[in-house]
Amino acid sequence: MRCNLMEQIIYLSEKELENLDNIKEFRKNASKYYQNHIQGKTIYHKDLGEIKFTKTGRKEVISQTTHNAVLFPKLLEIIETSKYIRTEIPNHNRIDGIIKFHFLENKVKIGKNIQKYEFLIAQDSFGKRFYYIKNVPDSFVRQKVPGAIEDITIITD
Question: 72: helix, coil or strand?
Fold first, then answer.
């Protein structure tokens, strides 16, 4: 799917996953959804190439930013159409073998709200895989990061 990334907004209904108000049930439903519909899949991103979706991505999102799992029903499309932001090299050796983190960004409309999200794609010697999601406020200013291959100072549309 090729499109103008500056105007791309992914639409997601507020009730794609059940039990949004009950965090324990939501975690269970989100985890099951990821396992059944996302885990094991591979997409192609125009700047990064193949990105795999593994159990690690599910665990990271559900354990640390559970509310962002609401993106799971459209996650493949969201990441496939995301804009490349930068690549960072960890400042220490990681026991999981990750040698780079690639940052992507996209906008998602959930209900009436448009929210910007950043997606971390981990790279190890076996390839690239989805790792993490975080919200990015519209006024977020990126600081120069040691080890960053490309630095962006401000997000604008």
Answer: helix
> Which amino acid would we find at residue 7?
E
- Has residue 3 been placed in a domain? no
Residue 113 within any structural domain of the chain: yes
In a domain, 1, yes or no: no
Phi, psi of 48 (to 5 degrees): -105, -15
Burial label, 10 (beta-carbon count in 10 A; 0-12, 13-18, 19+): buried
For the chain, list the strands marked E by DSSP: 9-12, 42-45, 49-52, 83-88, 100-110, 113-124, 127-136
Give the structural domain span for 29: 17-136
Number of domains forming the structure of the chain: 1
Q: pTM value? A: 0.76
What residues contact residue 58 under an 8 Å CB cut-off, 6+ apart?
31, 34, 35, 38, 39
pLDDT in tens, 1-16: 334 434 456 665 545 5
Dump pLDDT digits (tens) for 12-31.
554 556 656 778 888 888 88
Give dist(CA 83, CA 134) in Å, integer. Answer: 15
- Give domain status of residue 24, yes or no: yes
